[in-house]
Design a protein that fits this description.
Number of helices: 12
Structural class: mainly alpha
Main location: membrane
Family: Belongs to the binding-protein-dependent transport system permease family.
Distance between the termini: 77 Å
Radius of gyration: 22 Å
Number of strands: 0
Order of helices and strands: HHHHHHHHHHHH
Strand content: under 5%
CATH superfamily: MetI-like
InterPro entries: MetI-like, MetI-like_sf
CATH architecture: Orthogonal Bundle
Keywords: Cell membrane, Membrane, Transmembrane, Transmembrane helix, Transport
Pfam family, one: BPD_transp_1
Length: 282
């Protein structure tokens, strides 16, 4: 006796229909994401590793402080000494592209949700569901629609990184002091000036938390996406586990930790330096 209901019997034709009728759309998205990722990765791999490290350390020393610069030197030097420089740069490129697209989608939606109650009521349950779904589940539809490789990994990472940034952006703009907004309106400032000179600087600490969460969650997904051929350190961890090469797995895992700490510390230090500069100017 066969089951009267089988989800797979309905899901498979739907996926086939999407692949046939929307092949052009998926192909365009795939080519665009692949081109952006290839450009970022080629730029990061263009300088010699020593020169790349020197540039990052010098930028951190000038725009943040010497402690962060020394920290960046140690993290990048570890990735180089571990023999995982190319894989580390590939992972950084994957995270940068995913975070860039995630923030580009989540930030405007968060601002709209903070200002339009109906939009917030629609988005909130969707975010709750998205943040309770296990991360590897996002890879399944991405692989179904975009096959294996870096593109489905990026798509899944983008979707996984949107909820924290969107939620915290909405929270940041809802918690803005009303007196500051009223003061800006009373002084005759345009909506654009209010946004860039009052709202964004005031909401910056909460937005930074959202950015950090987006970066770290994207990094976690990118590492997991090594299972579908995304490359980078995730592939090295997968290779080490599948071949029982514990040394490779350990080095790749520690390199992931180093990159996570680096990507967390650099933007946070830059914003703290910027906020301190603004406070002294006032």
């Amino acid at each position: 006796m066969t089951d009267s209901f089988s989800p797979g019997s309905y899901l498979a034709p739907a996926v086939d229909w999407l692949n046939v009728h929307l092949h052009g759309l998926f192909s365009a998205i795939s080519q665009g994401v692949e081109a952006l990722l290839a450009m970022v990765q080629s730029v990061l791999l263009l300088p010699h590793p020593y020169l790349f490290i020197a540039i990052v350390v010098a930028a951190a020393a000038i725009w943040i402080n010497r402690k962060v610069a020394l920290f960046a030197l140690c993290m990048l030097a570890f990735c180089l000494c571990a023999g995982l420089w190319v894989a580390s740069i590939q992972t950084i490129a994957l995270v940068c592209v995913a975070v860039l697209i995630s923030v580009s989608i989540a930030f405007p939606l968060g601002v709209i949700a903070a200002r339009v109650k109906r939009v917030d009521e629609i988005i909130l349950p969707i975010l709750n569901i998205m943040q309770t779904v296990p991360p590897w589940v996002y890879l399944i539809p991405a692989v179904m629609l975009f096959s294996l490789g870096r593109v489905p990994a990026i798509i899944a990472t983008i979707v996984y990184g949107i909820p924290p940034m969107l939620r915290l952006t909405s929270l940041a703009f809802r918690q803005l002091p009303r007196d500051l907004l009223e003061l800006g309106q009373a002084s005759g400032a345009s909506p654009r000036d209010i946004l860039f000179k009052i709202e964004l600087p005031t909401a910056a600490p909460t937005l930074l938390v959202g950015l950090n969460q987006c970066i770290l969650m994207s990094l976690a997904m990118v590492v997991l996406a090594g299972l579908v051929g995304a490359g980078g350190l995730g592939a090295e961890v997968t290779r080490g586990l599948s071949r029982m090469e514990m040394g490779l797995g350990l080095r790749a895992g520690l390199a992931i930790v180093a990159i996570a700490l680096l990507l967390d510390r650099l933007p946070r230090g830059a914003l703290q330096r910027h906020s301190a500069g603004r406070a002294m100017a006032v």
